[in-house]
Design goal:
Length: 275
């Protein structure tokens, strides 16, 4: 049984997201830990977290993949803004401890002209400060399309962050649209891309997938998501993913341009693609 789900609105709380997920045939989901384009977070509701954890267990869900705000740039230029972003990360990780065993994924950041090495060291610093020893949630770095000065468009950059932090609780979330736009050919050579991932990062660090088709061609470095099968990846790419012995065990999150009925159809599509 695949673990498939989509991004859900967190406005009604965690338990409501579990129920919504079940209503569309999902058995995992993603949600923004705070306003995705701002920084505001809702007050914590630990009772809701506990009830949601119980419901997830009862319904045999796979791990959830929470998503940090897009605006959180750990390697932005201005020191005060960078410190603010690091504080947001620390607060998100502290809150995620109420949902142990699940994942927290975020975009590593954009170095805005400081250079890749400086950006990576700033990201590493923020993660080291935010992750207390024995921290119960695994943090996932998302593979990026390499748009502008984005860090994470190359597997080597993610590996440098992982090595810099030096914790077993750092992994990777592979986004199908991003890696394709970034120049990794998962359409024609999924095994080759995964072999490269394994050689550079190690497949044991691969913990989750974002499944999106792409509006743009291979290696475009653009990052515009498309409905499954309607972009430059095509249905075959997703058939390959859901039947791959390593990938089929990971939580798969749709971030396609959909409302709930469209997500329900794509969840079913992925289940039907599994042989
Ligand atoms: Fe993302
Ligand atoms: Fe993504
Ligand atoms: Zn994207």
């Amino acid at each position: 049984m695949l673990y498939v789900g989509c991004h859900l609105s967190a406005s009604g709380g965690n338990l409501e997201m579990v129920r919504t997920a079940q209503s569309i045939g999902a058995n995992t989901f993603a949600f923004f830990t705070r306003n995705p384009r701002g920084s505001k977070a809702k007050p914590e509701d630990l009772e809701d977290c506990a009830r949601a954890m119980e419901a997830l267990k009862d319904a045999s869900f796979g791990p959830l993949v929470a998503h940090g705000a897009y605006t959180m740039n750990l390697c932005t230029l201005e020191p005060d803004a960078r410190a603010f972003a690091a504080g947001v990360l620390a607060d998100d990780l502290r809150r995620m401890a109420a949902l142990p065993g699940n994942y927290y994924n975020f975009h590593p950041g954009s170095h805005v002209g400081q250079g890749t090495d400086t950006g990576i060291s700033q990201i590493v610093d923020a993660l080291k400060k935010a992750m207390a020893p024995g921290y119960p949630v695994t943090v996932l770095l998302e593979t990026m399309a390499g748009k502008g000065s984005e860090i994470g468009g190359r597997f080597e950059e993610l590996k440098a962050i992982i090595d810099g932090v030096g914790s077993e609780h750092v992994g990777v979330c592979l986004d199908s649209c991003h890696v394709h736009d970034g120049g990794y050919d998962i359409v024609n050579d999924l095994d080759g891309v995964l072999a490269e991932f394994d050689r550079i990062i190690g497949l044991d660090r691969l913990k989750a997938l974002h499944l999106n088709d792409s509006k743009n061609p291979f290696e475009s470095h653009k990052d515009r998501h498309e409905l499954l099968g309607q972009g430059s990846l095509g249905v075959g790419a997703f058939r390959g993913i859901v039947n791959h012995p390593v990938l089929k065990k990971l939580p798969m999150i749709l971030e396609t341009p959909n409302e709930l009925p469209g997500y329900a159809r794509e969840i079913q599509l992925l289940r039907d693609l599994e042989k």
